[in-house]
Amino acid sequence: MKRNSYLITMLLLLGLMMLTTSGCNSTREVNSNADQIKVAVTILPQAELVNKIGGEQVAVSVLVPPGVDPHTYELSPGQLKELSETALYIRIGHIDFEKNWMNRIAGTNKDMVIIDSSQSIEIINGDPHIWLSPRLAKIQAENIARALQEADPEHQQYYADRLQNLQKELDQLDSDIGEKLSPLKGSKFLVFHPSWGYFARDYGLEEIAIERDGKEPTAKELAELLSWAKTEGIKVIFASPQHSTREAEAVARELGGEVVIIDPLAGDYFPNLKKVADTMATALK
């Protein structure tokens, strides 16, 4: 009997501890997010821009996970549920993921405000990769700040001040990249997936893509591309970690060159673009 009483007492104490711990965790989570605006974005680079402007006033979730191709990603039921409790969705604009899922995203929450961060930006040939241009990111930042100010008028000046700081950071990033790549103006570089068109335009470079409109080149197109690359003396093919490098490696073998990875979707926006500039400067010398 004593043994049974001891076991019952221990079980009751364990249950009480679990309830107490659970309650503390729940309270901590509610307190940490109670006054924040829940903001969803499509990709990681957007999250950095929103956090730079929103600071402690926002809680940001990213729909497309790291290392995943946003052209083909499908939302999970859990993400759709989270969107039902989100106040603001800031989309990139023109990216396949958003085109495929926008009706479902909007349908999860009729009260959620949806903002297109590509407003006032000229989109070239349907290319959605506007965030890879610090100059266009400044326009995106203005659109993001305006959306946060409308959602949270009480902190309008807070967002305005942080936007101003971000604009200065983006200007400095633009200047740093321009200085790094200025000796290479007029250079052409070969990529597998066309992500760097706006970046190339800003700094006087030209992107040549193996893949076109999401399709691999025909045998004839590939032969012409290889002939051109050999004439130009191109030895580096840039690829992204979100796509298979198999085709890029085959082209590199034909050219006697190599595949170099540069990430268009890295979350550490500022260090990543500086790293890309360094990588290109080395590869294109």
Write the layout of secondary structure elements.
Blueprint: H1 2-33, E1 37-41, H2 44-54, E2 58-62, H3 77-83, E3 88-91, H4 96-107, E4 113-116, H5 134-151, H6 156-181, E5 188-191, H7 197-202, E6 206-209, H8 219-232, E7 236-239, H9 246-255, E8 258-261, H10 269-283
Helix pairs in contact: 2-5, 2-6, 5-6, 6-10
Widest beta sheet: strand line-up: 2-1-3-4
CATH superfamily of the largest domain: Nitrogenase molybdenum iron protein domain
Q: Biggest β-sheet: count, sense, barrel?
A: 4 strands, parallel
Q: Look at the structure and give the CATH class of the largest domain.
A: Alpha Beta
Number of DSSP-assigned strands: 8
The helix/strand class is: alpha/beta
Mean of residue pLDDT? 89
Plain-language structure description:
The protein has 2 domains: 34-178, Rossmann fold, CATH 3.40.50.1980; 183-283, Rossmann fold, CATH 3.40.50.1980. The protein has helices spanning 2-33, 44-54, 77-83, 96-107, 134-151, 156-181, 197-202, 219-232, 246-255, 269-283; strands spanning 37-41, 58-62, 88-91, 113-116, 188-191, 206-209, 236-239, 258-261. The strands form 2 sheets. Strands 2-1-3-4 form a 4-stranded parallel β-sheet, with helices on one face. Strands 6-5-7-8 form a 4-stranded parallel β-sheet. It has 10 helices and 8 strands. It is an alpha/beta fold and 285 residues long. Strand 5, helix 7 and strand 6 (206-209) form a beta-alpha-beta unit. Residues 1-32 have low confidence and may be disordered.
